Amino acid sequence: MAVTDERQRVMPTEVDRKTGKVLDYKEAVLLTNPINPDLKGEVDDKYFYANNNEDDKVYGWVGANPPVGFWMINPSNEFRTAGPIRQDLTTHVGPTVLSVFVSTHYAGEDLAIKFQHGEPWKKVIGPVFVYLNSDPSAKANPSILWNDAKKRMNQEVASWPYDFPVSKDYVKSNQRGRVSGQLFVNDSKQDVSASNAYIGLAPPGEAGSWQRENKGYQFWTKTNSSGNFIIENIIPGKYNLYATVPGYIGDYRYTSDVQVTPGSNIELGSLVYKPPRNGATLWEIGVPDRTASEFFIPSPPPQYKVHKYQNDTESKFRQYGLWKQYSVLYPENDLVYNVGTSNYSREWFFAQVTRNVGNNTYKDTTWKIIFNLANVDNASNYTLQLALAAAHEAELQVL
């Protein structure tokens, strides 16, 4: 199975799951007697192979006898929900290949499409591309078929939107529009280029609403090092322009609606995002980039064998039972972080979870951030800003 250049592996089978041991949730199964003995002790879990929408343009399987590849190619994400960094499933044992357009994975009911009585709605989903390839040399080197599938993916992306669909609701390239501009960030006294920022068009709403939007189309790209962007092949309609800039808290929304018409070429010029701020930053833990990857990610429980990928960038955080390690590291007293001396990559656990106190009983945990301000201005307000990567069945209190 191949999901990315890093995540490629010989997979367990459906039978291996049935003979294994179900763990804390049904999707996670400990392989106790797999057909391939090298996999014994590993955990199989379909969520290991989830991807951001932006990264799942091609994925699938290679069989050895005969040496055939079966690939799902998603040439566009315009019809998917919740933007480019929304995660969803790709592949798992079976062998199973998915192309998910709408789901509540990783987000819950916020992404469940709901309708009022009599509300009209329609949307073109797809097309997506199923690609099969074969090469005798792939029996010894499956990467041959993976590399060929990536080449085909690039061809399909370049061909989007396709010209063959005959549905009157499918908008061809000559009926679409284009939007361009340049994004800056002003977080002090001067504007700086918003490099590598996600910027896109989605149905009108408040700043950040694109993350929960599930009925319309979305069109996203990334800015270059100078903050320039071009969004192409936009279906005509009324949109808001949104952006999220790595390293800066909050969400950007352009002040005016963007009305795209057939064949339009809209140049928005220079745009400036001013992140929410009430004064100078006194201290900061982590980086506001919509991930928790900079924090401390523990090794998984030692009773589970970790699958080592050839390029081992993915195995660190996509492992079963990482949350369990908080109770091991902090069996009695909770985490205390000292601003100025603590290091968040070593001392800020990546997820705030409950503590397992035995007998299937879990208790709340209370983390402390200790900081010292040499001078306090009693006439001023001090603001604590939080950026949450995700929350599940959670209650957060800040005191």
Brief synopsis:
With 399 residues, the protein is mainly beta. It is 8% helix and 24% strand.
Order of helices and strands: HEEEEEEEEEEHEEEEEEEEEHEHEEE
- Beta-strand percentage range: 15-25%
What does the largest sheet look like?
5 strands, antiparallel
Proportion in helices:
under 10%
Oligomer: single chain
Quickly give the structural class: mainly beta
Task: Tell me the Rg in angstroms.
Answer: 24 Å
Return the average pLDDT rounded to an integer: 93
Low-confidence stretches: none
List keywords for this structure.
single chain; 399 residues; mainly beta; 4 helices
Explained architecture:
- Helices cover 8% and strands 24% of the residues.
- The chain is built from four helices and 23 strands.
- Strands 13, 14, 16, 17 and 18 form a five-stranded antiparallel β-sheet that branches. Strands 11, 12, 15 and 19 form a four-stranded mixed β-sheet that branches. Strands 1-2-3 form a three-stranded antiparallel β-sheet, with no helix packed on it.
- The mean pLDDT is 93.
- The chain is globular, with a radius of gyration of 24 Å.
- With 399 residues, it is mainly beta.
- The protein has helices spanning 14-18, 143-158, 325-329, 344-347, and strands at 21-22, 29-30, 43-44, 51-52, 58-62, 68-73, 87-88, 91-92, 96-97, 129-134, 177-186, 191-193, 198-202, 219-222, 228-234, 237-244, 252-253, 258-260, 265-273, 336-338, 355-358, 361-363, 368-370.
- Residues 195-267, 281-398 form the Rhamnogalacturonan lyase domain.
